[in-house]
Amino acid sequence: MAITPEPLPGIQAVDFRAPPPSPVAPGRRSSFANDDVLTEYLQQSLKVPDLILPDRVFPRQKSVQNPPRIDLQSLDSLEKDAGAEISELIAQVGCLK
Fold it and tell me: Per the record, which residues fall in region Disordered (predicted)?
């Protein structure tokens, strides 16, 4: 048997005679003056374009196991052609030792 709690002294319980409001909205039409304009706008704005994406976002990166070794002290004594080759290696590989 359920026991109802005692009301607090000095606080009067409110007696509700009307049922609670219905959670279902009434079946009235929208208050928007021109439903056709709203419907057309929503149909146009909700279109998602068909995107053609590439297979891969980033090109496959080569892992460098043994980057080229360069002796920085001997760079001054290298010929100009060797310096260009070193620059190309660095540009291709992206790192050096």
Answer: 1-31
In the chain, where the domains are located: 67-97
Burial of 90 (0-12, 13-18, 19+ CB in 10 A): middle
Please report how many Cα atoms fall inside a 13 Å half-sphere around the Cα of residue 15, on the Cβ side.
Answer: 1
The tokens of 84 are what?
């260009």
pLDDT tens by residue, 79-92: 666 777 777 777 77
Does the pTM surpass 0.70? The reply is no
Amino acid (one-letter) located at 34: N
Residue 96 near residue 67, CB atoms below 8 Å: yes
Amino acid at 32: F
Rounded to whole angstroms, the Cα distance separating 68 from 97 reads: 6
Q: How far apart are CA 4 and CA 1, in angstroms?
A: 10
